[in-house]
Design a protein that fits this description.
Largest sheet: 4 strands, antiparallel
CATH architecture of the largest domain: Alpha-Beta Complex
Strand content: 35-45%
CATH superfamily of the largest domain: Ribosomal protein L6
Distance between the termini: 69 Å
Order of helices and strands: EEEEEEHEEEEEEHEH
Strand order of the largest sheet: 11-12-7-13
Number of helices: 3
CATH class of the largest domain: Alpha Beta
Helix content: 10-25%
Structural class: alpha+beta
Length: about 180
């Protein structure tokens, strides 16, 4: 049995789950999410918990079991608490600012980079070098954070660029021969 799939999903107060065939709709204080799931996977709604089960031990059913449970648990967590990703902008003159709903990044290029949020996503610029991406859908929050990071990934030699908060960037050493003084 799948270790993840067999765990029940607790439904917090204020969150409702409606199962219509192979469609799951989750409503909560932050919004509403819906998703089509594999029709072979069954979901049992008992009180304030959900249980996901599979019809057999076939490879596909085992894979879908844990995946379905995790997707539904993320939907419940998203409409109840929401998700957020924090990013840092590192580099002299590199900064982020908010222009209406859009995020404007100045990352050393000749032009600023403007990123529009997808539906349900909000950008928060806490300081010139701190960005917070938040929303109720975990997939879209992660995708938007990755899109921001992709604008200028961290440099391997100086560490300048956009990175996730707390991310460790390994800095490569420069040319060692140049520091000592090469051939004469």
């Amino acid at each position: 049995m799948s270790r993840i799939g067999r765990n029940p999903i607790n439904i917090p107060q204020g969150v409702t789950v409606v199962i219509e065939g192979n469609k799951v709709v989750v409503k909560g204080p932050k919004g509403e999410l819906s998703r089509e799931i594999n029709p072979e996977i069954t979901i049992n709604h008992e009180g304030d918990t959900l249980a996901v089960s599979r019809p057999s031990d076939a490879r596909e059913h085992r894979a879908q079991h844990g995946l379905t449970r995790t997707l539904i648990a993320n939907m419940v967590e998203g409409v109840h608490n929401g998700f957020e990703k924090n990013l840092e902008v590192v580099g002299v003159g590199y900064r982020a600012e908010k222009s209406g709903e859009n995020l404007v990044l100045k990352l050393g290029f000749s032009h600023p980079i403007e990123i529009q949020p997808e539906e349900g996503i909000t950008f928060n610029v806490e300081a010139a070098n701190k960005i917070k991406v938040s929303g109720i859908n975990k997939e879209i929050v992660g995708r938007m954070a990755a899109q921001i990071k992709k604008a200028r990934p961290p440099d391997a030699y100086k560490g300048k660029g956009v990175r996730y908060a707390g991310e460790k960037v390994r800095i490569k050493p420069g040319k060692a021969g140049k520091a000592i003084g090469g051939k004469k």
